[in-house]
Amino acid sequence: MNEPSSLRARLRAIATEALVKAAAVLTLLSLVLMVWSVLDPTPMPVMVSMSVGQGIGTLALLLYVVAVIVYQVRLRRRPSVPAANEDG
Amino acid sequence: MMARMLGLAATSSIALVAAVLAAAIVLFYLWRKPAFTLGTQLWLLFGLGLLPLITAGFGNAAGLHATKQVQFCSSCHVMLAHTADVLDINSQSLAARHGRNALFGEEACYTCHADYGMFGAVFTKINGMQHVYHYLKTYRHKTLEQTLPELHLYKPFANGNCMQCHSTQNRLWLNIEDHASALADVRSGKVSCASAGCHGYAHPFSKARPVVEAAHREVE
User: Fold this and answer.
1) Whether B16 contacts A35, CB under 8 Å
2) In Å, what is the CA distance from B172 to each residue of B176, B179, B194?
3) pTM: predicted TM-score of the whole model, two decimal places
4) Distances (CA, A) of B188 to A11, B31, B159
5) Which of A30, A50, B79, B98 is most buried, most CB within 10 Å of its CB?
6) Measured at the alpha carbon of residue B30, what is the angle toward residues A70 and A24, in degrees to the nearest 5?
7) Measured at the alpha carbon of residue B120, what is the angle toward residues B115 and B126, in degrees to the nearest 5?
């Protein structure tokens, strides 16, 4: 019985880490697009920044919020697990 | 003007600084992979949330300001003849004479062509997107000479835009006989300020063409 629940916990931990990593990479991408429009304010960069760039940034923030919620829910279910060693 | 330039520089700088700080936080996380403690979560909230939001907000302000510049309009080659005329110190066209006014300055195209109604800024931007769509679809690979005869406004130029400055209520303006006699038609838009019989076309070099006139008739 312990093994599957441990596996589930491990999978959730990986999911949290993967979500945060994905959010980080998407944020970097959105920052590049947004900075591009500030440095080169011509039609294409401005349009791409305000649509694709900000869309990716919003998606990244949503992924991060989901990751934090998943992590906090997991912590509440297993309050004895030290937070510092969970995903690091 | 100087204050506006400084404001724009500050806006762009804030957007860039926020982006650099956000990128630094995110790269640090990806590089060191620290434990997902509450502290890390708060730092990441800055890096993934607040700082990018600041970049987006100030970047939007800088971007929207950029879209009002004559330089921005002339970044599509089909507008080069229009913007060259506006910036030509020797041109006597209606557009050039207004463009030399400091109140128009670098935003001459936007000042005349903006929609001044409620939500006008939004409609102006939507129209701008329409311009980009037509540019990418039709005019991108055409030369200026090929394009010029086909360019026309989506709807006749509104006198309301002229009346943002020329209220039609000033006594000096009303003392001009033509203004007084056509007052109702000018205010209703029946007679265009920028027509051949009045102050002339704003961009006269682009008007003496049957294609444009036909397009205007179609819209009317």
Assistant:
1) yes
2) 7, 10, 19
3) 0.76
4) 69, 65, 8
5) A30
6) 55
7) 90
Q: B26 touching A, CB under 8 A? A: yes
- Beta-carbon contacts of A42 under 8 Å, excluding residues fewer than 6 positions away, are B66, B72, B75
CA-to-CA distance for A85 and A88, rounded, in angstroms? Answer: 6
Token representation of residue B190: 């029946």
Residues of A within 8 A of B19 (CB-CB) are: 31, 34-35, 38
Encode B99-133: b = buried (16+ Cβ within 10 Å), e = exposed.
Answer: beeeebebbbbbbbbbbeeeeeeeebeebbeebee
CA B70 – CA B64 distance, rounded (Å)? 13
Interchain contact, B35 vs A85, CB within 8 Å = yes
Structure tokens belonging to residue B161: 């835009």
Instruction: Tell me the per-residue pLDDT of B145-190, one tens digit each, with 9 for 90 and over.
Output: 888 888 888 888 889 999 999 999 999 999 999 999 999 999 998 9
3-state SS assignment for residue A19: helix
pLDDT > 70? residue A80: no
CA distance B43 to B54: 15
Q: What value of ipTM does the predicted structure carry?
A: 0.78
d(CA B23, CA B38): 20
Using the structure block, give the residue that is written with the tokens 């890390």. Answer: B40
Using a CB–CB cutoff of 8 Å, tell me whether A19 touches chain B. Answer: no
Nearest-angstrom CA–CA distance, B60 and B48 = 18
- A59 — contact with chain B (CB < 8 Å)? no
pLDDT tens by residue, A15-26: 888 999 999 999
Rounded Cα gap, residues A13 and A67, in angstroms: 10
- Show the tokens assigned to A35: 């900075």
Cβ–Cβ gap B19/A28 under 8 Å: no
Quick count: other Cβ atoms within 10 Å of Cβ A10? 10
